[in-house]
Design goal:
single chain; 256 residues; alpha/beta; TIM Barrel; two-stranded antiparallel sheet; 10 strands
Length: 256
């Protein structure tokens, strides 16, 4: 039996600004990545998102990013390994407080945006992230891009690691994501995207933008739900996975 997690980034509203359709998306995923207040989210949003996840029986993950609210954490920052460790601990600690107040635990950490992409290629920064998590709670799972330095660093530090793939993104021949600035980086055809996901889960392969198949370990699928069409996609991908007899479960159920 194949198993896979469906994760989505939630809690990205801020003050009077509402971003995403959290209440709808959370019905169809098994894990959520909750913004920790630096790239998005605020204290009240964090608290309410934790409560909503608990009500829906969905596993909770921290989604720390760079302190770049105006850029939504998508701009690269030059940081030292020490700074990176402190950034992770600060944001993880904040979310852990809200989770503890609700009697919940943090299942995983998934860095956001530029932090995620930089750590996927830079082992030094990736190691800083992994060490920060390990020093806070070594039982927390590190969720990172499959075939990346981030997942390698997690394994080297001694964390449990989950490999993430993207349903709507194109891949390079080395297993990295095609930059959004390049044509064809985002897959808009839902049927094509879902067929690719099924192949990743069942065959462990993805067809790169250059045409060749690349080995990939798909343990968690990131699905975006910040517009009505995306919510339809989340529902459809869940239905198709179930038709393929792929069990959908949070990563803590099969990452040991």
């Amino acid at each position: 039996m194949f198993k896979v997690d469906l994760n989505s980034d939630l809690g990205e509203s801020f003050g009077n600004y509402k971003i995403g359709l959290d209440e709808e998306v959370i019905k169809y995923v098994t894990s959520v990545n909750v913004a920790c207040g630096w790239h998005a989210g605020d204290a009240e949003v964090m608290e309410n998102t934790i409560k909503t996840a608990k009500e829906n029986g969905v596993a909770i993950g921290a989604h720390p990013g760079f302190p770049d609210l105006i850029g939504f954490g998508r701009r690269n920052l030059s940081v030292s390994p020490g700074e990176m460790k402190a950034y992770i601990k600060y944001q993880l600690g904040a979310l852990m407080a809200f989770a503890k107040a609700e009697g919940e635990k943090i299942q995983h950490v998934k860095p956001h945006g530029a932090m995620y992409n930089m750590a996927a290629k830079d082992l030094t920064l990736a190691t800083a992230i992994a060490e920060a998590i390990y020093e806070v709670d070594k039982d927390i799972i590190l969720l990172g891009l499959a075939n990346s330095e981030l997942t390698r660093a997690g394994e080297q530090v001694g964390l449990k690691v989950a490999n993430e793939v993207f349903a709507d993104r194109a891949y390079n021949s080395d297993g990295t994501l095609v930059a959004r600035s390049k044509k064809g980086s985002v897959i808009h055809d839902a049927d094509v995207a879902i067929s690719r996901v099924i192949k990743m889960v069942k065959e462990g392969k993805v067809t790169a933008i250059t045409g060749e198949d690349v080995n990939i370990n798909a343990q968690s699928i990131c699905v975006h739900g910040d517009n009505p069409d995306a919510v339809k996609f989340v529902k459809e991908i869940r239905r198709r996975l179930q038709e393929e007899e792929i069990e959908i479960a949070s990563i803590s159920n099969f990452i040991k």
